[in-house]
Amino acid sequence: MDATFRTVTSEGTEILVETLPQVRSCALGFWVRRGSRHEGAAEEGLAHFLEHTVFKGTEHFPTPDELAAATDRLGGHVDAFTGKEVACFYGKVLADQLPDLVRLLGDLVTTPRFDPEELARERSVILEEIAQSEDQPDDWVSELFYGRFWEGSPLAHPILGRPEQVATYGPAEARAFFEATYRPENLVITAAGALEPEPLMALLRPVLDRLPRGTAHGAGGPSTPRPFLLNVPRKDLQQVNLVLGFPAPSHQSADRAAANLLSHVLGGGAASRLFLELRERRGLCYQVGSYLSPYADTGALQIAASCAAAQARELVQRAMAECARVRERGVEADELDRAKLQARTSLVFSQESSSSRMFSLAHQAIHQGRLQSLDDQMAEIEAVTLADLARVARELLEPGRIGLSALGTRRGGEIRPKDLVA
Predict the structure, then answer these.
(1) Per-residue pLDDT for 154 more than 80?
(2) What sequence ranges are listed for the domain Peptidase M16 C-terminal (predicted)?
(3) DSSP β-ladder status, 228-232 and 403-407
(4) How many CB atoms within 10 Å of residue 199?
């Protein structure tokens, strides 16, 4: 990858910097290689709890008001998120504001105060966030899917946590998880834009020196997908929300590109198989799509849709029939060409700002373990053949391995096992 600086400190922190002479902004991210799948049974939701509570005060910015004012003075954007496998604190600013951005983000990941009163207030905010998620059916049906598809493994942990557990978290729990997790060897720092590696390294050194030393929090255990069928009635919903999923390749699988193109063919656009069949020809739904969710050791190829309760069974039956056609007959050359163009276009669009380049560096370093140039990534897409797609479809679209969560079903209209057999 041209113009990319990469180093690993003696303590184990990986740092990647891409200089972009054509821009005047810079983006910086502190990535922790630990998310909800790395929590213990008594720690569900703690990774997300930490993401919130570090913003309640740090050594240099002791109160939330001071942190908010410091963020506004940057003139740019600062945010954070927690996923299944990472937590991230990032920002984008004009180049001359980089020192202040490093200081602010560095404080968040090294010197949070965990003030009891502030944590109590933020705990209430997180509980409201969980309640809001339950009120958003597309979010909640996905959470139901993850909880059953990987049931019994840490990948099933809800990112937001369970209310009854989150309600018990305070400074002691936050501090213990922080000190075990926010270690040099768990940290990846990525930056892209109008900046140079050596000055950035000088800015980062005081931050790195503050990180605790010692054994890091262990990685989460393996996760094996399992078939299931779950109907959850909800009288307050006008529609049934559905997620169907098949086991899929991990981030580092050699079939990753082919599986992504298969997802495009199934539900990636207005000419995709599922959109044409379920919406345009049958009028069963307004929206339907498919997407790939890869992780370190597993993944899921998911189909999401919503429809009237009376049409849910037919929608599932026809979706399964379309998957069976792809599995048995493969795809057409023009379908593969369109999918490749969609994938290439999405890839190029994702590289056209300093923040997207920063995110791309982190994704490759953390999830794929290697850096690829844009040309190499495009070539990987182009190398997928019709035979590759046919083989991957046969392997993935196996009805006996499917998981399905249906939220909002009515009595007598639940999805049945026979609806999943094409």
Answers:
(1) yes
(2) 173-342
(3) parallel
(4) 12
Q: Clarify whether 51 is annotated catalytic.
A: yes
| Burial profile 218-255: b = 16 or more Cβ within 10 angstroms, e = fewer | eebeebebebbbbbbebeebebbbbbbbbbbbbbebeb
- Strand extents, DSSP E, 149-287: 187-193, 228-232, 239-247
pLDDT tens string 337-351: 999 999 999 999 888
Beta strand pairing call for 187-193 and 14-19: parallel
Nearest to 102 by CA among 235, 222, 201: 201
Residue ranges and CATH numbers for the domains of the chain are 4-210 (3.30.830.10), 228-420 (3.30.830.10)
CB 225 within 8 A of CB 150: yes
List the catalytic residue out of 51, 85, 173, 277.
Answer: 51
Are the beta carbons of 149 and 327 closer than 8 angstroms?
no
pTM above 0.85, yes or no: yes
**CA 104 vs CA 203, 214, 281: distances in Å:** 12, 24, 53
Bridge partners of residue 304, in order along the sequence: 243, 289
Q: Name the token pair of 149.
A: 């598809």
**Side-chain-side CA neighbours of residue 16 (13 Å):** 24
Q: Please, which pLDDT band fits residue 354 given cuts at 50, 70 and 90?
A: very high
**pLDDT given for residue 1 in this prediction:** 44
